[in-house]
Fold:
Amino acid sequence: MVDNRHATALVIAGVLSVLASVYLSVSIGSPHWFRYTSPPVRAEPNASELRALQDEFLDGDFDEKSVSDALFRMNGTLGLWWRCVQTPADAHWYREPDPKMVMECVSFTLSQQFTPKYKEPGNHNSGEDLIRTYLWRCQLLLPLVSLGLVVLGGLMGFCACLCGSLTPALFIGLLHLLAGLCSLATVCCFLAGMDLLHRVSVLPDRVDGALGWSLYLALIASPLHMMAAALLVWAARSHSQSYYRMTAYRVA
Structure:
């Protein structure tokens, strides 16, 4: 038998878990983890160079240096699975008059996600940068692990409801705690990877970078998972203690 306090805690934990999973799922599928602000295009030589970068970005093979250069100079945004640049809607690159800009995105393939990073981006002879390589792979895998843990916890909770037992809530809470840690680790890996990239890459003049809203969604998901975990663990422990006290009272 579950009293009102425990039932309320379980409902709130379920709502928090759903919100956290939705936030994390949206952030994974969005390209707005990091964005660059580039200066306007005004000279024809500069426009021709950017047009070549655009063609290589959209049609060429994946190369970290060319992709980074395009992101730096074309108001690019970067996500876990997507990279985007802003291009004019027509064929003209001049900003006088200002053309209408559209965002064009390209997804990372699975093989590109596991492509090694090099100490000098684009230079395969410089040696593999193991730290950046594994940070990138971790930021890809950790959010998927987090969602998988939440799905497993949801299946266990559904089975517990069918059985009318609150005992699995403790283990489900631990799963949510691990999911929250994975979400937080995803953000940390992404930030560390971007910091290392900017150390080995030269940003053009007047190019600024800023965190995007998708990263904040993933960051919000972490405490929501942890709050759900705390409520589940409290409900399981409190219900267990109440059950033992009731059993001892009946025996006495």
